[in-house]
Amino acid sequence: MIKVVVLGSGNVATHLCVALEKHPSILLLQNYNRKGENIAHCGVTITNQPKKIVDADIYIFSISDDALTIVNTKFSHLKGLIVHTSGSTPLEVFSSFKRRGIFYPVQSFKKNIPVSFSNIPIAIEAFHESDQQLLVRFSKSISNAVYILNSEQRNILHVAAIFANNFSNFMYTQAEEICQTNAIDFNILKPLISETITKIATTSPKEIQTGPAIRKDQKTIERHITTLTDQKKIKLYQLLTAAIQHYYE
Q1: How many angstroms separate the CA atoms of 102 and 188, rounded?
Q2: Of 31, 68, 98, 111, whose CB count within 10 A is highest?
Q3: Those residues with Cβ within 8 angstroms of residue 153's Cβ, 6 or more apart along the chain or in another chain
Q4: Is the CB of residue 196 less than 8 Å from the CB of residue 175?
Q5: 33 touches 13 (CB < 8 A)
Q6: 127 contacts 100 by C-beta, under 8 angstroms
Q7: Which pLDDT does position 122 carry in this prediction?
Q8: Residue-level pLDDT at 49
Q9: Confidence (pLDDT) at 39
């Protein structure tokens, strides 16, 4: 039985607490958060006092990247394996701890949207081999996809994740606004979005690019630009069109 304490009350921490509390081979002992707030759908004991954090095998700091540096001083009394969930912050942010590591779930989380950790890839790293083995055992108990990556690789993965998720979602937001501005139901586009996601499950995205940009259909491109009324969307359309054409030249 692996004993765990989760520190934080944000999106990732909330989902971790819910998942770990129900897990048969993991004992979630406690949650620490500054406000002493209860975690929704999780009955774990809460504390907001660092000195009252109980002994555990793994302490998972799921807090903002900017706050990670204070862990070295404020939580220096903790004796277990200290890990964080950041995609871009290096292992050395916990330089004052001999036992340090990273547990990075490669997923976008919202408190009110359920997730299944079994389907979420986990990228891990640890300073000591024995702690890496502990993290592998812990991660494989909740996820079917565990990867050992160093800090440089994980940062690159995080950049790729920004392109794949955050930037693409922003494009969906732009599409929704265009539809709403013109009294068109955005739901019409959802099967198209789903089909694209289905295709990249088995095919490289590079191979399935379509549209007027890759066809160099200048008449359609010009028609679209004159159709758009928002200057920011026009610039975005032109930028992406140029990027696609340059890439496929």
Answers
A1: 41
A2: 31
A3: 123
A4: no
A5: yes
A6: yes
A7: 97
A8: 96
A9: 92
What's the token pair of residue 25? 């081979």
Q: What angle do CA 61, 53, 81 make, to 5 degrees?
A: 50
Q: With CA atoms as reference, report the closest residue to 100 among 58, 150, 56, 65.
A: 58
Average per-residue pLDDT for the chain: 96
Beta carbons of 101 and 83 less than 8 angstroms apart: yes
pLDDT-based confidence at residue 149 (cuts at 50, 70, 90):
very high
Q: Which helix (H) or strand (E) holds 83?
A: strand 81-84
- Reported as a single tens digit per residue, the pLDDT across 19-42 is 999 999 999 999 999 999 999 899
Order of strands, edge to edge, in the sheet holding 122-126? 46-47, 26-32, 2-7, 58-61, 81-84, 100-105, 122-126, 146-148
Q: Which two tokens mark 136?
A: 């592998």
- 218-227 and 231-247 are packed helices; what angle lies between their axes, rounded to 10 degrees? 160
